[in-house]
User: What shape does this take?
Amino acid sequence: MKISIIGAGRVAYHLFQVLKDQHEIIQIFSRTGKFHGLSADQNAPQIISDLNLLSSETELCIIAVSDQAISDIIVPIHQVLPDTLIVHTSGSTHISRLTAVHQRAGVFYPLQTFSVERTVDWSSTPLFVEATYPEDQQCLTALAESLSQRVYAYTSEQRLSLHLAAVFACNFSNYCYDMAKQIVDARQVDFSLLYPLINETAQKAQQADPQLMQTGPAMRGDMNILEMHQRMLNQSERKDLSDVYQLLSGQIKERHTAS
Assistant: This one.
């Protein structure tokens, strides 16, 4: 399949890396004209910075840009590729953002966190596909199954709820790790001492209901510990951490009192 990728960020980079061996990536659109890690060999795709230069040979156009840019970028792409299957890779953008302009549209969403520095295990990464036409749905499903063992045909509504849950499970959790590191760094304590705890918590969340696995002073209603922690944070003049601690502890207490 001849594929053009729109974007030069982390998702675009990883899609290129995983697709280039099985398919022909003919073009990559980059506003800067640059794309990370692209070799200068004869099989390298053409880098374009003008959407008007998109090739009519494109069989699948993958939009991998920020969510807010999708509505703007679909218009010029549609004008150049009016009959091509165009998909976006966003977890939080409804397919109607594309179909409002371009009918032959779809979604190819990998539920994963991407960093240029780390490789992705695509075989275990859930991939969610959606398309306006059955034949395009089959095409995207086949493409997804060539990459992953976990492929799902989800509606936009299902995918949007999953993306919201992913923000809690991934982005918010990572920020909690960041806050934890700030606390120990302030006392020259090795953050790596928390690694076994972090790993065990993640393992338990995958093997049982997270509600049943909750531990800690808030769940136990241990007011002495809760108040001591609040004093420590207040004394360190970290109101931001104190506010988060108070909010999350309150939510945990309410959750487990109700249950």
The mean pLDDT is 94. The radius of gyration is 23 Å. The domain at 2-154 is CATH 3.40.50.720 (Rossmann fold).
